[in-house]
Amino acid sequence: MSITNVVMIVDDDPAIRDSLSKELRAANYTTTAASDGDQGHALFQSQLPDLVLTDLAMPRADGFALISAIRASSHVPIIVLSVRGADADKVRALDLGADDFVTKPFSVTELLARIRAQLRRTSTPASTVLNFPDLTIDLGRRHVIQDGREIRLTPTEFSLLELLATNAGRPMFIEQIIARVWRSAPSTTADTVRVHMSSLRKKLEPDPSDPRYIVTEPWVGYRFIAEPA
Amino acid sequence: MTPFLRFLGALALIAAVTAAGSAAGLNPNTIGFVYLVAVLLISLRGGLLIGTISSFVATLSYNFFFFHPLHTLTIEEPANWFALAAFLIASVTVNRLVAAARTQAERAAHLEALRESEALKTSLLRAISHDLTTPITAMSIRTESIRRRAGSDTELLEDVAAIGAETARLRRRIDNLLAMARLEAGRAHPRREPSPPADLFRAARENLPTVPMSVHVDADCADANVDPSLALEILVNLVENAHRVSAPGAPVELTARTHPDDAAKIRIEILDRGPGLPPGLEMSDVAQRGLGLEIARSLTEANGGTLGLVPRSGGGTIARVDFPAALLPAEGAA
Fold first, then answer.
1. In three state form, how does the secondary structure of chain A look?
2. Most CB atoms closer than 10 Å: which of A58, B69, B141, B311?
């Protein structure tokens, strides 16, 4: 019997808690649930889950308070359940230290993919060759093969791809990208990132009208959307 | 209190000051200051007009009751002319200052009230969005759960697909109502940023998984400078409209390219092969084209764009959205 990951669900709505718990258990996770931020924080300290799923609008301590409280002591992945039209809340949650978000109503398939992406970060050993559907990225030799053809990238484009692909499935902030690829060089702006990202995407995507690998993440930055093969 | 009562109150106060001043035998210099205080109080309570009238009444009383010869409006000593003139100027100025301060305070209070009602609307809308979306989320999770366990029971799978489609439809209706409410509340302040059309199209497909779409983005098409979540709302509404009039299984086409006459804009088109526009139908005929179109139009305008419907050659309709472009700085600028 293999070890399972524990996911903590924090939502004030029992219908969401119950249905999510059931689906996550069906996907082989162990679940634990709380109905507000205070309860969630207490449960977090006693159970030390491997991942936290939290709603934002809750009575008593809300999701923002919970994220701050958890981040004071832990790097555990946190995924926020946000609602449409509350984009400012989503960005605020990410700023407070949440790792990702899904927008209600989300599909279970999408949520499971987001959970896998977060758990990969904490579990997979670093590999020098990354494999995605129709895409192989050799970090050692700095080679990219897409559907059998080699793609020639500039050093900046390769670094961008490396950063996004090693964080596959997770949103990357523009600031994080500038800090890592440009080492926070003072003249680097969001437009600099856009210029290089745009040319990387043109080279990488087999059909630029229908991106398979990299998409923009509104008000945040970019996300590598393919899952490791 | 009515203005008339306030005016009577002002006269009573001046009369009281006059009577008290005479009874106490105050000298003319002292009584001038007492009148000034009375005018200040009147101005604070009564406003500019009553305050100004009171200034003149006080000046006349001052002269009539305290300057020699008493109980006449004539003035013996020239110096008293200066005293009276100075009093009049001071009391009228006090009135104006009080009025200016009052207007400013009222404006500040009004702004504060506006801000509070904006904040209230914002939190109300967020709460409604949350409360309406939560049961729909629970419904769609349960639906997926049944689908997972249905195995190869085709009849059950069909029913589950129907429930899923209806749930999605309900969700989009609510999204539309909320978008409308946000516009009404003046809350749909677009937060514009460079948005690649390909990413907008992809998001539209994720939102309408059962609608067949074919997409094309020109290689040299710039990003749109729009609020991406509002742009998605626009596309979803227009694609849904196009899908509704299309033959079953016929794809809705989405294209994006640089505007043919203006390089600072991009043009997104949603094309269908439906029956086309009825003759004489205008964009403003909301009832005929549905709430979705009206929302798309309002949101497009909020994003600095324009939306038009044009007939498609060979039959069908083109919904044409022109958005401002977010041009890239020259390559290698970094």
1. CCCCCEEEEECCCHHHHHHHHHHHHHCCCEEEEECCHHHHHHHHHHHCCCEEEEECCCCCCCHHHHHHHHHCCCCCCEEEEEECCCHHHHHHHHHHCCCEEEEECCCHHHHHHHHHHHHHHHHCCCCCEEEECCEEEECCCCEEEECCEECCCCHHHHHHHHHHHHCCCCEEEHHHHHHHHCCCCCCCCHHHHHHHHHHHHHHHCCCCCCCCCEEEECCCEEEECCCCC
2. A58
B304: domain CATH number is 3.30.565.10
Nearest CA among A45, A60, A47, A53 for reference residue A21: A53
Instruction: Kindly state whether residues B122 and B5 are assigned to the same domain.
Output: yes
- Is A26 close to B148, i.e. CB distance below 8 A? yes
B151 and B22 housed in the same domain:
yes
- The ipTM value here is 0.85
In this complex, is the C-beta atom of B251 within 8 Å of any C-beta atom belonging to chain A?
A: no
A175-201 confidence digits (pLDDT tens): 999 999 998 888 889 999 999 999 999
Residues B35 and B176 in one domain: yes
Q: Strand, helix or coil at B103? A: helix
| B216/B152 same-domain check | no
Last residue of a domain, one of B188, B219, B243: B188
Q: Are residues B180 and B258 in the same domain?
A: no
Shared domain for B123 and B211, answered yes or no, is: no
Structural domain of B323: 193-333
* Total number of domains in chain B: 2
**Which helix or strand (DSSP H or E) is residue B213 part of?**
strand B213-217
Give residue B286's pLDDT band: very low, low, confident or very high (50, 70, 90).
very low
Are residues B154 and B14 part of one domain? yes
User: Are B196 and A26 inside 8 Å of each other by CB?
Assistant: no
Across chain A, mean pLDDT equals: 91
Residue range B119-152, pLDDT digits in tens: 777 777 778 888 888 899 999 999 999 998 988 8
Any CB–CB contact under 8 A between B215 and chain A? Answer: yes
Is B218 found in the same domain as B114? no
- By Cβ distance, the residue of A20, A23, A187 closest to B334 is A187
